[in-house]
Each structure stands twice: as structure tokens, then as C-alpha cells.
Amino acid sequence: MRDFNTWLGQFKQSIANYRYYTDFDKVNTNVDAIRIELNILNSLIGSPNIESDFEALVLRYPEVLKCIPILIAKREREIRITESSGSFCYDFANANLPIEQYRVFMRETGLFELLASNRISNLIDYVTGVEVGLDSNARKNRGGHLMEDLIESYLQVAGFVRDESYFKEMYIHQIEQRWNVDLSCISNRGTTEKRFDFVVKTPRMIYGVETNFYASKGSKLNETARSYKNIALETNALEGFAFVWFTDGCGWNNARHNLEETFGVLEHIYNIHEIEGGIMQQIFR
Questions:
Q1: N vs C: which end of the chain shows fewer Cβ within 10 Å?
Q2: Considering the chain, what percentage of its residues have pLDDT values greater than 70?
Q3: Number of folded domains in the chain?
Q4: d(Cα 227, Cα 229) in Å, to the nearest integer?
Q5: Are 94 and 125 found together in one domain?
Q6: Do 123 and 172 fall into the same domain?
């Protein structure tokens, strides 16, 4: 018998690797896509007549407009503005407003002042910094993939082969069709579609596997624990199928009660400490 408090106490603060914090390949790709246009806009830096110079530049090189949103840390090419003077939808991919209105945008957002004041010396360097900042928003997605990558690496260490003895992102209907099993108890009689992060197939058993890592608290943790508790209860009586949940992360400390309930009914619930100890070789037989 495992003790829940001891088990929870083994949870890790982080599983971040060096590539987790910033995806510089993505940053560089995004900057390179507008490098020529940014170099053209560089001619406005320090301009004493920036508004008229901007207008002349856009008339000659209208393609530079597509760079404007990223200068205020926006990826969308359409930006909506509402003020007492009116509402405007600026299209920076295909100019839809008079050039004077784009001058208003540059003036009121502070971009003219930024460029004319010499506070920056190169827009490529500036946009690289903006892209690094925006990329931090993608860390949550990368965090989810980190746990999946970790689980997959241990599956391979345990001797399983992708698309032969284990499968990634597999839906219930695919499992049913491939191995002729009935999983309607967890698909609400076929009306809902559940996808498992992994499916592991051994000679005597099919394992539906979910993985996640929560470094911070949030309402999703309680929802996840309740959902997986239901799957555990619904699949307990199934012949030839077992539900497995690999989870970890200090975020669970704030949702421990729901996790403990699931821990009490789900036989195959494990943390990274147990994975590192070789639990996969013991359960996947």
C-alpha cells in the first residue's frame, strides 16, 4: 500500500529543460520573415520629420505596414481601436484606411515617439526582444509536451516501439477498431470522443495512458482529477483494458483533496519518482 502524503511529497517543482524557456528557432524564423521590411523602417529612427517621412516610406514601400503590429507586441494583422473620436479597424496586411489614419495610429500608440527619440537603434534587435517576450506565452504548451516527451522516453527505455507496441494520441474509436474492444463505457455509448496521450499494447492488455505536469495551481487540476477518477471507476470492470495516469508537479499541493480521491480508486497512478524507479517495466506486461 502506498501512502498518499508520501507519494505527493515526491512531486517535483519543475521538469523544464534548456529548450523550455525560449524557442529561439521560432523567434528567429518570425524575425527573418520581416527582416527586409524592418530594415526599411530603420530609416525612420531618429528622423526629425518622422510623420512625413513615414508617409513617404509607406507610399513607396506599402509592405512595411505589416511590421507595425509586432512593434506593439501584437501578432494579429488587424487591430481595432475605439475612442471618442471613432472606431477603426486597421488592416496592416492590406491597407484599408487612408495613410493619414495610419499616421494617427503611429502617433497615438507612441511608435513615432519611440522611433524619433533614438531610444532604439535597430528594429531587428527590438523585434527580436519582442518575439522573445511573446514566446514566453507558449511555455504552458511546451510544459505539457515536456511531460509527454518524458513519458515517451521511458516507454522506449522499457523496450516499447512507437506505432508497434505503443501509440501516441489515440482516440477511443481507433482503439476499438484496431483491437476489437468495447470502450463505450467511457465514450458515453459512442456519443463523446476521448483521446489518450498514449496507448500501450502488450500481449494481454491495452493500456490507455494520460500524462500531465502542473507546476502551478488552477481550477483545471480539480477538473482533471475528477475526470480521471470517473474513467478509473468506469473501466475497473473492463477485461483487457486498464487506465494509467502519470502525473506530477507542485501545483497539485493546492488540489490535493481531489487528487487523493482519484489516488484511492485508480490502481495505476504514478509520479516521476516512480517512473525513474522503473515502474513501467512492472505495469506494462
A1: N
A2: 97
A3: 2
A4: 5
A5: yes
A6: no
